[in-house]
Amino acid sequence: PASCGNGLIDDGEDCDCGSFKEEICSRQCCNTTTCMFTPGSECATGLCCDFNTCKLKLAGEICREVKDECDIEDKCSGTSNLC
After folding, report:
1. Bridging pattern class, strands 62-64 and 55-56
2. 3-state secondary structure string across 5-57
3. Residues 41-80: pLDDT tens digits?
4. Which Pfam families does its entry note (predicted)?
């Protein structure tokens, strides 16, 4: 797509790492030329994406720790890359 590389996931794109650092968007999981997931990948961004496997983390895995006594931890759903 013409907009591939702008850092936004546009129509027809699975992912778009743009100029993001590797800890935010995995180039192992996202083809930066086509802005499509690499073969076998399910995700390329997000706290619930395992950048080692390019797969979604399992439901119940903690993606954000408790910050104080008024807070609760956040967990992955197993169906989304977002925390």
Report:
1. unpaired
2. CCCCCCCCCCCCCCCCCCCCECCCCEECCCCEECCCCCCCECCCEECCCCEEC
3. 999 999 999 999 999 999 999 999 999 999 999 999 999 9
4. Disintegrin
